[in-house]
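Internal QA ticket QA-208
Title: Verify multi-chain structure generation after dependency bump
Assignee: T.L.

Test input:
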Amino acid sequence: MLEVRKVAKAFDGFQAVAGVSLAVPRGQIAAIIGPNGAGKTTLFNLITGHLRPDAGAVLLDGRDITGLPPHDVCRLGMGRSFQRINIFPRLTVFQNVQAGFISHRGRGLDLFSRVGQLYREETEALLESLGLLDRSGEVSGFLSHGAQKQLELGIALASEPRLLLLDEPTAGMSAAETRETIQLISRIAAERGLTLLFTEHDMEVVFSIAQKITVLHQGRVIAEGAPAEVRNDPEVRRVYLGERR
Amino acid sequence: MPDLAFLFGQSLSGLTAAMFLFLVASGLSLIFGVLGVLNFAHGSFYMLGAYTTYQIVQWLGRDPGSFWWAALGAAVSIAILGGLIERFLFRHLYGADVLYQLLFTYALVLILSDAAKVLWGTGQLSVSRPPGLTGAFKLWGTFIPYYNLFVLLLGPTIALLFWLLLTRTRNGRLIRAAALDREMLGALGVNVDRLYTGVFVVGSFLAGLGGALIAPVKAVVPGMDVEIIVEAFIVVVIGGLGSFWGTMLGALVYGQVLAFGILIFPRFSIFSVFALMAVVLILRPWGLLGRPLKS
Amino acid sequence: MSGLRRIPWALVLVVAALFVPALGSRFYTFVATDVAILALFAVSLNLLLGYTGLVSFGHAAYFGIGAYATGILMKKAGIPFLLAFPAAGVLAGLFALVFGFFCVRLTKIYFAMLTLAFAQIVWAICFKWNDVTGGEQGMPEIPYPDLAWMERLPLAGQLRTSDHFYLLTVVLVAACLWVLRRIVGSPFGRILTTIRENPERAEFIGVNVRRFELIAFVIAGAFAGLAGGLFGIFNRGVFPDFVYWSKSSEVLIMTILGGIGYFYGPAVGALVLLVLNQQITSYTQYWPFILGTILIVLLFAFPSGIVGALDAAARRLARPRRA
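Actual output:
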């Protein structure tokens, strides 16, 4: 589904991503891990079109999407959530998600219909599955951190993506919230047949749901494989797990 | 084909205008670079610098050196005024939307322009050139007033001093660092509040000095605030908001475009500077020597 | 409370506005025309400012282009108002399309500076192009549209031409505001608010941010142009300062004074500012000083504008008290 070929990106001479390749087949739940500064977020930005790679290519379903702007990438079926909360803070929870549907279904250029009840059913169904339905009318900027992360996920899902990229979906959450969120994500991914690529700092989370793990270090892939393989990889133990234990 | 003497005179007058503009625009650019605010009231500070100079000259009377004391006194007073405004009013708006900050500085423009009318009336006031710089000399067929020569020399001197201040002193380095990354400074334990006030004081000093020095060559009138702020804006946009040498380059370019634009399109000289500004913004929005904003 | 809400207040206001000439005062009609036209101008700006989050320093350009378009067509070409008025919107919209194409490529302060630069270019042209715009002297004596048919309307027979023009203005402004209101309440309007809130996120829900900004810019420019078209006739002349940056700042102040978070906020701002201006300038020549002071009080005490402050007060009153 997603194929990344030797993408590279440097900032002011600092090589943030140095020729990373990876492939995520349809339906897989894949994770990217690596210490801070390994280039995870930059890699996400390259895949989603937020940044243009200096070299290499990104393919979605075999189609070259390198350098396409994010809005085109999104339309081709790639959704994304962010590490830092990235919602529309002065809109209500309902409006946040509804906007995703409006945009995705091509109603954005409709200047004269009334927006009020548009895609109400879809929006409410999605909020329901996220457990946010009872907060539908609240201004999203006032929600708790955990609820905002879930809303973030909801906005991404409203674009009805086939491939979902999640950047640290449980960052800043308590242990209980993390568990809930992970269950939620796995359930939604299964229900919708989503292909998932995520980054995460919580190793428990990663090893519990990922089918494949790619380890980044200093902008390079140092290991890749099933969780068990990665866990036992000596290189990974040295540069990554070694630092943490 | 106009003769060379004429072209020389024209470019020299552009150069003189550029030096005044540099003085004012560098303060504007400094404040933008550090505080991230375009201070519309900067032109008002310049105007008040000119009026204060006039006032002090009146008080001191016929004393030959009075102009110099007046210019210094004016620049210092304006610096203090700027510092007070930053400390007691502007500071409370740092968290607000940029639009509100702009509106605040615009409100100051309105208030200060009327305040000047109340204090000094609406007539034209003039300040005579300081003794020793009253005459003119002839060079390649062009008469150059001594005072203009003085300004031509003073501009680069102040630029150089200012540059040394920014690069060789601790505070100067902090200011440059603040222009690059504001959050970092707070994290490093720098007293950002005091730094901001300091920057406002220095910026206002430059505006006041610009006003003081222009008083002997231009009539001191209401409206000079708005006139200069528009020009200074164009200069810093062309040179690069927040860029020191960019401001110098912007002022030089502006001075020449205006001086020669009049020759080439006599009716559209104002047009030429705005068009230049638009072209720069389209091709290099961060200006000739500025840096792109971090996204 | 809910009973009060069901009343179509906008319609009530329009009908009430139609009766201003019945007061018989030339002055009231004059102020009311001024307010109606500038309200449209300010609301059009707010499509950018309050809904899309774009700060334009050059909105007067489109107002002025509209004024010149209608003025030139009616005075020099003798084209009737019925065609010259829409032409103001179309021409201003076209200019907004060309200028906006470049402006939306920039963000924040750079966007604002480029809108200003374009507006000043338009101003310089209007100021100097004597053959077409009348240059510095402007273009006086724009004719009134032919409104003799209004004399046959009930109650309107005895009114002056300026009253007739006022009635026409109220109807046209109300229609324009209705269209703008529909636009901000449409799916398109919702997408604009996502751009205001978070352009980066908007891109990632598939919104082509630049394209939407450009469309909003064109719509705002076109309605500013329509307001300008009316203003030139009302003012009995079109002058270069319609385009000058101080005009842009005036409309910006109206908009913020009223409250950018509310559709009618800018209209209230226009009303308050113009009425205050009329009142205060009859006492003192230092209107700018008063305006500056009002602005500072506003910024520190009521940052969400007059309507925002009223809204907050109403909410406080409406909240049920607990013992």
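Spot checks passed. Strands of chain B lie at 136-139, 142-145.
Status: verified.
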